[in-house]
Amino acid sequence: MSSVVRTRATGVWLILVLATSLSWVLGTDHGLSNDGHRMASVAIMVVALFKVRLVGLYFMDLRNAPAVLRALLEGYCVAVCAVMISLFLLA
Question: What contacts 43, CB < 8 A, 6 or more positions away?
């Protein structure tokens, strides 16, 4: 496996592809209970913001940025995720 994943970016890319696949599976055939579409939608939103975080940290190099910039990214991800889920559940 180490010969396939030579750099950290390749590993993160693979995680992003798997997360995208998970979102697609949840969005098309989640197989959950009657209220499963709401849970699947929330899970898709969480996965999407996790992907935003990974892109920011590894492809925009905020992982090694000053603490303030990284804190802004982390806070942004948490805040947007919380607002999106809250608005979705209250609608």
Answer: 26
